[in-house]
Design goal:
The structure is a homodimer. Chain A is α+β, with helices and mostly antiparallel strands. In chain A, about 25% of the residues lie in helices and about 25% in strands.
Chain lengths: ~650, ~650
Amino acid sequence: MIRRFTFGNPIPTEAVVLNIEKRKAVPPIDESIAVMDGMAEIKRTVNGFIMKMRDEDIVYGLGENVRGINKRGWVYESNNSDEPKHEETRKSLYGSHNFIVIAGEKPSENYGLFIDTPGKVRFDIGYSKYDELKIEVIPADGDSEDYTSELNLDLYIIEEDTVLKTVKSFRGLVGKSYIAPKWAFGYGQSRWSYMSSDEVREVVKKHRDNHIPLDSLYLDIDYMDDFMDFTTNPDTFADFKELVEDMRKEHIHLVPIIDAGVKAKEGYKVYDEGVQNGYFCKDENGEDFLVGVWPGKCVLPDMLNDEARAWFGNWYKVLLDLGIDGFWNDMNEPALFYSEKRLKKVFDEIGEYKNKNLDVNTFFEFSELAGSIANNPEDYKSFYHNYKGQKIRHDKVHNLFGYYMTRSASEAFKRLVPDKNILMYSRSSYIGMHRYAGIWQGDNRAFWSHLLMNIQMMPSLNMCGFLYTGADLGGFGDDTTSDLMIRWLSFGIFTPLMRNHSARGTRRQEVYQFDSKSMDMMSGIISLRYRLIPYLYDAYTKACEQDEMMFRPLGMDYPSDKDARRVEDQLMIGDAIMVSPVYTQNATGRSVYIPENMTMLRFKGAELVEETSLTKGHTFIDMPLGEVCIFVREGKELKLADAGAEYVEE
Amino acid sequence: MIRRFTFGNPIPTEAVVLNIEKRKAVPPIDESIAVMDGMAEIKRTVNGFIMKMRDEDIVYGLGENVRGINKRGWVYESNNSDEPKHEETRKSLYGSHNFIVIAGEKPSENYGLFIDTPGKVRFDIGYSKYDELKIEVIPADGDSEDYTSELNLDLYIIEEDTVLKTVKSFRGLVGKSYIAPKWAFGYGQSRWSYMSSDEVREVVKKHRDNHIPLDSLYLDIDYMDDFMDFTTNPDTFADFKELVEDMRKEHIHLVPIIDAGVKAKEGYKVYDEGVQNGYFCKDENGEDFLVGVWPGKCVLPDMLNDEARAWFGNWYKVLLDLGIDGFWNDMNEPALFYSEKRLKKVFDEIGEYKNKNLDVNTFFEFSELAGSIANNPEDYKSFYHNYKGQKIRHDKVHNLFGYYMTRSASEAFKRLVPDKNILMYSRSSYIGMHRYAGIWQGDNRAFWSHLLMNIQMMPSLNMCGFLYTGADLGGFGDDTTSDLMIRWLSFGIFTPLMRNHSARGTRRQEVYQFDSKSMDMMSGIISLRYRLIPYLYDAYTKACEQDEMMFRPLGMDYPSDKDARRVEDQLMIGDAIMVSPVYTQNATGRSVYIPENMTMLRFKGAELVEETSLTKGHTFIDMPLGEVCIFVREGKELKLADAGAEYVEE
């Protein structure tokens, strides 16, 4: 059952595809909105909703965010952020996924909430008070603080027999997930950046020479001419078309990045056309709003404007025509290094500190100035969209920008190449975008704790419809280690997007860069991925088609099992298997909870070396580096492809 | 057996108290230095030493640093750093503790290495190559790169039957650890900062009113007059002497902070005397070197100069005379917000960016400029000490500064108040300082992973002689949560220093600031600490007197037990007990390895509620919030004090 309460006049998001009838009256402040069977009462507050949690209640959801599978004990904010740190005390990452499920100890005791609004929403899940869940809308600056009439959002309350059914019901509400092509389940290699076609050829060759399976190679920002979207570098990638063709012969798909910011440069056709047609976001005076991104001064296409969106999407044709069949959309929170206005202000302020005797207070103020330039909230209040015919300030629809940019591409693909399935994923997102593309989990770091975050984020993303997803294996920022790479690959072989990606200036982490013993382990694990693809792609497409979760916490599959409910570092994948990754350095095994009798398959690289029957309960299992253990449910079978493939077609 | 190899002319550190005879000849480059029984050969390289590790070897040590108990898989640098992030990819924290033990699977297969040099040392423990341990000296800039004659250090190789005996032998080499007074095992409350004596009284009163035990209250930088050492604020702490007396009546010890930087202000007696006598560090021209710290422009007392050190130590008398009997020395890496010279340079450079079109490269350069001001390596090369009659550039003895500052205080206490045992601990340290004081584990953050770091750092610090130690419970930086506070206290009750400390601007985390259910849990746990003090103080003093470790990894106590060797999140404490803390959010229990038959004592707060016999092996144990489980070894007993004490004397 889905109930819909519409407060005020919500800005439409197009997250939802079902037209659920609105409740006629919405309750006033301090009054009850709903009482769930055996659960808490949801009450309306001045700026949102409040409910009690019992000690045993688990809160699932929020898609892409920090912390565990159970989101209790922190305060999260839906505020799409260019956030390369991913520290456990952050509140927002790149996406806003306002869906949670509160699950009691009885399987039937659960309910889901979806807060549909493109503005900021705060979820205080037992942070201020241990037993209280408080959802608050953070008003855009200048909005009335009088919420009695101004709480503008759709609240959906979803109740089904079990958590899984509640999720399925929600997913039905927001529509079918994007299905990626099968080749996108191959292993991908990326780096910020491969600097030339020679380097691209070299990286591919080293994979093939070393028999490291590979299906895709990613082009980060340096393939472009001066970081201009839909261009290629005339010097370093002069043979771009030939490169795409040669790579295709090697069964490699090149996947270029597309950025949200368009270089403000006369003579650059994307810019000129956009200016001519008024397709860029405007400042308060109606001038194109100038921001700094990769190429320096840029403008932002108004992705929320239907016409501008169609126009921007058409530009992907340039690359489609060159034989490209996969893209990743980046910097679309949108990330702003600076705005023209802010930069000037900061330079002026810095001048004022020049001759001071900087003590604790003034020094910290001064240090923070530079940090305040990028992604400044004030800048998000300084430009405007033309959304459904209305001029609307960016901060009020901030969380939709990445969604609509990606939709721009996806809708264009349907027009331009209706018979092709193009790979598309985005950094920023909102629920609804899952119908158009996947996401990657952003700029994580080479931290063991970020491997755990990757594990814990999979089910919450699946809940919100994002099924084609994965994290940068090995870690994007900071220097990785060979053992972290091995362990991360050992989990990454299960995620739909399996990509090794790292940042400029960090240790090289292509598999062949490590000592030969480590390389062999990594290569063997990647080969196992290829054996798993039939099972994984099947589980993935089935989850997409049937509005289900491919990755699930044990508590969802075994809701009556108290021990299973508390497991935060094992996952069910598809209908047959469970995984239990090692995510701590120097561990040679780990404690595993077996929720029902299972068969453990132990692989050394791609080779199955042992089958063991395990009985329900807690157990400790040796898992040395280079070995992968997969737990198969009773009565189920894990179908494996033959070993030896070096790309998906094979 | 301890072997000593002296390379070149090492700068003395006074880390060692035994005079071990030097080997007559040291081996040339690429030659073997030593071959250990059943273990690897240590070879000399151009700039250090290299040895192989087998898969099963564990590397213990390095005192205060990031990552696990087993240090394999990362590269660490001894380079005392003001490091408030403590990320897992950092290489240095506040102390330099160049002692490691490589332990094979057979208990007899182990050896220890101590690299005694006050400069930078890099420990690449399987980072570059998985099976290689490489120790490299990083030369001070301008030193000859010709290491054949210039590797200036003492290498000590220590070999005994077991790891514990190797550690004990090393500890004999470096001398007995400082013993803190018993009251310093009471619970301490701190905050940057309690701003007035009224606030101090209020905080104490709230503890007493709520029956939260408390023995000490910490004064961070704001008790001073304009952050000047050895002054008290004439407005906010006008009644300082009376405050100390009143607190003493309440059985509360006030513990003020002392900073390394002395405000450069004429008329401030510490400054004037230092200038007059030439006691401050000088720049290359012999002028006092000006740096920015809390009060703005400061000078640094030359702690390495015997006379200056004695003089600075005498200043503690000002506070001793007011009844103070405990101190913490801070910012003594030394932390430099800026140097006069650098700040000028940065302001000039910022000017140059003002009119550029900042793209990816120039924008990042610009952003990094502000970050480059504090603790800049160039600044550490710009001032000089007078050490044992020699003018010596700071970077060559950098890692000794905190040690010698703290020694300055400790030596003064022996002269000024020979009959009193003064509490003293420091942020920065080098091995040798453990004879004079303890350390706290610096500016951690309210991260669950930092609770684990606290657990894992205890034994490595103990190895290096630092026995009076603990971390900021609840986390110093960032906002804590009630459950993190409860879990951190549940471990903190075992650490000699048990202090709740947090930074300006973060959530208040005094126990009474939380909801009443959480407060009761915290208060109960602190009460349990007081019941444990007889056992803990006994174990602590015994470890100090007998050169042993109070906190030990399981692998040291059960060296033949392969499972025990791999445990990274349980510790043996004293001779009777083991602990197994919960360090993940929303966990209600955890897997525990029981290395021998044990009795588990379950406490609800201070009250013993259950005794359970456990047999050797892996097991899962429920540990709900507010409960503490202590595991007692067979044939041992945990003596508990009666419940109810609210301060140590009681």
